[in-house]
Write a sequence for this structure.
């Protein structure tokens, strides 16, 4: 490792709602020097022991970038985002110089954690003896919750980032938010021994070691669940960050977002119970299809099937609440059963012919489920005892 104990470069202090940070320009070799330990941790696949802010490196991606940085027109125009402890950073207001320094706890190659841009940093290790400057944004003294917030905010809308991982990082947030609640609910569905989703959810969007039955990503379930809670998750999150409480929903809003009242009352456990009971009823209706995870074309237990069922949950739950005159009920599985009794689908019909691969299979299943709700005047009420 290098014998140097500090690296200095020009930087400017910026203020944004999240707080202060520094924007500057570093030489590629200096950037690599202060974050080499962070990159090495990623190479060693210590993700589960690491603080949870960074995703694993893709060997193929870093191989491409190491070739790319040696081309004549190589460029990384966007900033690499770093986090540095306050003990390892000093800023001179007069000269606008930011110094990254070693300390008793950290050597110079350990001072920076990469919040965004680790593939670019690893690619820059191939740069030898040529000028290559990199723009950087450096957060000094940010705690783990803030770092997770920065990572999630920067990457949630980008397809290059595993969306399930981003939702997992929201667990680090201190304040309440729709995203965090949805995340906790989905994790509970994956972990509860009585859950139809027990060990079926890909927590980080890819297969979990030791599991063979993961059929749906955490992101898919979280994003379906969010529509039951809010019409604007980011606005709600910002409201809670300001220590305010969102307005109570109108009756029309409750039809679109039927779990919103429960969410605002912090009854996340009850939301979990509703989803749990609903899918227990699904499992009881089609036990073979729900448990046959390997059969080709079986849409029911997989992403498109679950998303169609979540769409069906909205009108079903609204109907139950309307019949009871309240919109914060916790129906049991037996309350959902009559709705599925009306669906004229057999286990063997969950196949490629009935439900083609892709979103068309989801749409087809939802149309069949939705059609079962249409009642004629001669229909017998679903609940005679209500």
């Amino acid at each position: 490792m290098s014998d140097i104990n500090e690296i200095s470069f020009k930087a400017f202090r910026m203020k944004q709602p999240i707080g202060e940070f520094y924007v500057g320009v570093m030489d590629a070799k200096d950037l690599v020097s202060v974050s080499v330990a962070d990159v090495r941790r990623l190479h060693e696949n210590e993700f589960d022991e690491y603080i949870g802010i960074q995703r694993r490196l893709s060997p193929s991606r870093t191989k491409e970038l190491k070739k790319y940085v040696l081309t004549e027109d190589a460029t990384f125009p966007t900033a690499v985002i770093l986090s540095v402890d306050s003990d390892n950073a000093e800023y001179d207001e007069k000269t606008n110089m930011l110094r990254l320094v070693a300390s008793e706890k950290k050597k110079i190659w350990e001072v920076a954690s990469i919040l965004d841009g680790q593939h670019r940093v690893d690619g820059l290790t191939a740069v030898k003896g040529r000028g290559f400057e990199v723009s950087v944004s450096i957060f000094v003294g940010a705690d783990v919750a803030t770092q997770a917030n920065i990572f999630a905010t920067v990457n949630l809308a980008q397809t290059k980032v595993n969306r399930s991982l981003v939702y997992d990082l929201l667990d680090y947030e201190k304040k309440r938010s729709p995203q965090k609640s949805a995340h906790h609910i989905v994790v509970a569905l994956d972990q509860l021994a009585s859950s139809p989703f027990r060990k079926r959810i890909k927590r980080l969007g890819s297969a979990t070691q030791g599991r063979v039955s993961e059929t749906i990503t955490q992101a898919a379930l979280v994003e379906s669940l969010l529509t039951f809670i809010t019409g604007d998750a980011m606005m709600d999150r910002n409201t809670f960050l300001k220590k305010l409480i969102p307005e109570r929903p109108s009756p029309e809003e409750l039809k679109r977002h039927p779990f919103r009242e429960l969410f605002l009352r912090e009854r996340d456990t009850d939301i979990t119970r509703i989803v749990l009971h609903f899918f227990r009823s699904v499992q009881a209706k089609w036990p073979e299809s729900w448990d046959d995870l390997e059969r080709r074309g079986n849409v029911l237990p997989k992403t498109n099937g679950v998303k169609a069922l979540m769409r069906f949950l909205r009108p079903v739950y609204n109907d139950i609440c309307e019949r009871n005159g309240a919109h914060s009920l916790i129906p049991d599985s037996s309350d959902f059963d009559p709705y599925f009794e009306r669906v004229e689908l057999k286990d063997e019909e969950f196949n490629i012919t009935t439900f083609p691969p892709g979103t068309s299979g989801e749409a087809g299943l939802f149309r069949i489920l939705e059609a079962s709700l249409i009642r004629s005047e001669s229909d017998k009420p679903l609940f005679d005892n209500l």
About this structure: The CA atoms of residues 2 and 33 lie 8 Å apart. Residues 303-324 form the longest helix (22 residues). Strands lie at 6-16, 19-27, 80-84, 89-92, 97-101, 112-116, 133-140, 201-202, 216-217. The mean pLDDT is 84.
